[in-house]
Amino acid sequence: MLTFIVRRVLWTVLVLFAITVLVFVIFFKTPGIDPARQIAGRDPSPAVLAEIRAQFGLNRPVYVQYGMMMKRIFITQNLVSYSNQGELVIPEITAAAPATLSLVFGAAVIWVVMAIAMGVAAAVLRGTLLDPLLMILALIGISMPVFWLGEVVNLFTQSRWHNSPLFSWVPPLGYTPFSQSPVLWFEGLVFPWITLSILYIGFYARVLRANLIEIGNEDYVRTARAKGLSERRVLIRHTLRTSMITFVSLFGLDFGVLVGGGALLTEVVFGIHGVGYLTYVSLTNLDLPTIMATVIYGAFFIVLANTLVDIAYAWLDPRVRPSQ
Q1: Distance CA 287, CA 89 (A)
Q2: Out of 34-48, 55-69, 98-112, 276-290, least confident range
Q3: Contact status, residue 193 vs residue 107, Cβ threshold 8 Å
Q4: pLDDT tens digit sequence for 202-216
């Protein structure tokens, strides 16, 4: 198991290096893209362009430019925004990351707990009225777009019913850091958590139910029942553990994407200035350094999540571990 973990970590480093190279080439060396013209503004003179290229090192060899960019991102952290001169990109991402992490972690706790509860209940009660009822609720959750659901939630909690006893405690849209006020942090994120998690609750519950039913017909499960094990023990130690392999794989991918900026719609609807919102603003302004830094940030969490999923997969199913 230790050998497997070391190999996966080494592959993670290699993949991240390849991603940084690819992102740099796409954003800075694609034909037709000239960062100097973007910085200079409209109708710059050749002398101004030459001065800007010399100032930012854009006239140096490609590998030197790549090294300078990586140094500014990972070591000195003094990468400057092109659209907002004087604004440092890395501190801006660092300031936005807690909002995104708070949003995604809270939503993940809700969707994992609720999805496991709904999936297990539907599988155990298969053939009863509760099974199709739970799956219909899951399908409704999958069908509701996040931005629409968020606007509906805001309509009631921030407007029509805000002065009622039910929602009078809901603070204005935005994000309050935990260090500033844990109570306001929690109250401001309750409905964003629920909104973001509903889609995943439905999807994960349906996936888990299907896996539990499929694995329940396997030979080793029937053998466990024949040995006299209780249904509860068979469920927990055999069917649920094996069914969680697919669940964990999907969770790692989705969690990494959301932390990397995939929660953009939820952040915009609820006024949470996280990494997704920062990426959106940088894309509208074509701010290449910020775009590149946020893409690398997102890639880091996605690759890290994949690595953790592979390790968890190997722990849940020893058959995937290397023999040597």
Answers
A1: 10
A2: 34-48
A3: yes
A4: 999 999 998 888 888
Query: At 83, is the secondary structure helix, strand, or coil?
Result: coil
If pLDDT is split at 50, 70 and 90, which confidence band does 47 have? confident
Phi, psi torsion values for 100, nearest 5 degrees: -65, -45
Domains belonging to the chain, first-starting first, are 11-89 (no CATH), 95-320 (1.10.3720.10)
Does the pTM surpass 0.85? The reply is no
- Token pair belonging to 194: 């629920």
Nearest to 148 by CA among 275, 266, 250: 266
CB distance 315 to 248 below 8 Å:
no
Within 8 A by CB and 6+ apart from 127, the residues are: none
In this prediction, residues 125-149 reach a mean pLDDT of 89
The 3-state DSSP class for residue 270 equals coil
- For residue 180, give the amino acid letter: Q
**DSSP states along 102-150:** HHHHHHHHHHHHHHHHHHHHHHHTTTSTHHHHHHHHHHHHHHS-HHHHH
CB within 8 Å of 50: residues ≥ 6 apart: 59
pLDDT exceeds 90 at position 104: yes
Q: What is the pLDDT of residues 298-318, one digit of tens each?
A: 888 888 887 887 777 777 666
Of 32, 16, 117, 22, the residue nearest 74 (C-alpha): 16
- In this structure, the dihedral spanned by the alpha carbons of residues 245, 250, 255 and 261, taken in order and rounded to 10 degrees, is 160
Distance separating alpha carbons of residues 148 and 139, to the nearest angstrom? 16
Phi-psi region of 177 (alpha: psi -120 to 50; beta: other; left: phi over 0): beta
Round to whole Å and give the CA distance between 263 and 88.
23
Q: What is the pLDDT of residue 101?
A: 92
